[in-house]
Amino acid sequence: NKELLLIPGPTPVRDDIYDALSQETMGHTDPRFARIYKNSIEMTKELFNHPAEAYVISGSGTLAMEMAIVNTVSKGKRLLVISHGFFGDRFVPLAKAFGIEVDVIQAEWGKQISKKAVIEQLKQHEYKAVTVTHVDTSTGVVANIQELIPVVKRAGALFILDGVCATTALEEDMSKEYGQEGAKIDVVLTGSQKAIGAPPGLAIIAFSEEAVAAREALENVPAYYADIHNWRKVMDDPTAYFATPPVNLIYAYECAMKIVLEEGMEARVERHENYGAAIRRALIAYGMKPLAKEEAAAPTLSCILYPEGVEDHVFRAKLADRGIIVAGALAHLSGKAFRIGHMGNTTPQMLEQAICQIGEVLEEMGHSVTIGAALKAFREVLGSKA
Ligand code: PMP
Description:
This protein is an alpha/beta fold. It has 14 helices and 15 strands.
């Protein structure tokens, strides 16, 4: 009996991905491994609709965040951070560590930042780049990138998108023009452990031509491992060596990406939208309240406020005893809410199981709930797909 890992990443890993992971380790420059690595990089490019360059290397999402910044913005230049929570905020100390001037617009937790606030801030200074977190994992808020991209590009800044909790569940099409000519996403950075559904450990990042040109305009960057110059030849021909890639994780990533591309982005986007809407409807039926309004709520995870009298550590411990693992909330919401992931390889059956167990735990804790009503709400959204 497996545990159901419904935290907002890492997420459930399918058995075929584990099988790939456990294949015999090959030499990292072995042409047979190089083919697998190259295929993984090509699939990454296909996912983002053919950006100029893509990098898949050992590291977590935070390394990918760092790569996005150090390769495009130099010391003394300005970065605007659009933050919908804890992970948006992370770009502030990260960029400051490299001597970059940083301004931040912070949303009230659970709300989106308005396009107007961004337009106003962009008038104040000349920004080299703007970061937006596609889904902030602390709040379950999805950023309205369709509105923000043209505004940022009109101001002449690079648009950097943190896709760690979004990639493969929300559209991140780097060839698409948003509202005006040339208004495209410049950088998408992500990790392997969320909607992609592979184990944690890979930093994944794609650059547009404009972002590559920004790197070329900087002679040196204050990094070595994170400098894309050092990785370019490896991404082009993985029989080359810069630093040893995580061979087995690449096997797993190749398998996970095949699953992603086979399902197709259109189907994945719809599936995740349905998951988000359905699970929130079910939890609302238990008297719980999502932090974000439905218009701003993410398809990949939900941050759910507890009803009066539900103690966080008791609730989560009781759920864990039943094999369902959810996450606590971060910062000032700690103890007041929990976070549940619904992405990647997660199935409707897994989510139904979670809904039933959550209902039973609430009953055990003295709350009167109707599990049947929650399941009905869930199935109404998913229709015959559940
Ligand atoms: N950005 C977002 C949106 C995240 O959710 C996370 C991790 N939860 C990160 C960045 C950092 O990624 P990692 O923990 O893999 O370094």
